[in-house]
Design a protein that fits this description.
The protein is mainly α. 72% of the residues lie in helices and 0% in strands.
């Protein structure tokens, strides 16, 4: 069989393909794997494991203790506090407990200095998860432009969904509808309807 980290990732991708969700047990499995990876000095892979389930954790009804415990794994991983992957995980896994930290770090960043649309997306989602739309939108707009320029349609569709939510919360309904409609069209074209 596969090593535990790869087995968990394979199971997760099967759930996505089959449009099923095993619930919070998957989040705990990934947290355990992330802790093992972090303990063995593989911080980047640990963040990747947490990043994989972070958006699902955001929408899952997890108790505060579990959110804090899983998010605390990032504190054990060496690296920059402004790392886009770290911010994405913190904002998504523990939006209430880590909101101040995410806002402080995102507030120091600018989309101008970041070329990778995936990193821009991660920062935008982190800010959006803690309801800091004023910080999220510049990153999400830059991520959408970058994904569009690179032809990364899956990333573009996901970015547009988060951008629509970030527009909707402060009342920019027309922009939200426009972005959501484009995201739905792209997702249908590439058969990636998961987040729509």
């Amino acid at each position: 069989g596969l090593p535990p980290a790869e087995q968990a990732m394979a199971s997760f991708h099967l759930e996505i393909a089959e449009s099923t969700w095993s619930g919070s047990a998957t989040i705990r499995d990934f947290a355990r794997i992330a802790r093992e990876l972090a303990d063995s000095g593989e911080g980047e892979r640990a963040l990747g494991a947490l990043g994989t389930i972070s958006v699902r954790a955001y929408w899952e009804r997890l108790d505060d203790e579990t959110r804090r415990e899983v998010a605390s794994i990032t504190d054990e991983i060496m690296g920059s506090a402004d790392d886009p992957g770290r911010l994405y995980v913190l904002g998504s896994l523990d939006p209430f407990g880590r909101a101040k930290q995410v806002v402080e770090h995102v507030g120091r960043l600018s989309p101008v200095g970041i070329a990778d649309p995936e990193q821009l997306f991660q920062i935008g989602v982190a800010a959006s998860a803690v309801w800091a739309e004023n910080l999220a939108l510049p990153f999400l707009r830059a991520a959408a432009a970058g994904a569009r320029a690179q032809g990364r349609l899956s990333l573009l569709a996901h970015t547009l969904v988060f951008e629509a939510w970030a527009d909707l919360r402060p009342g920019a309904v027309r922009q939200a509808i426009t972005r959501a409609a484009e995201a739905a069209r792209i997702a249908e074209e590439i058969r990636a309807l998961r987040y729509l």
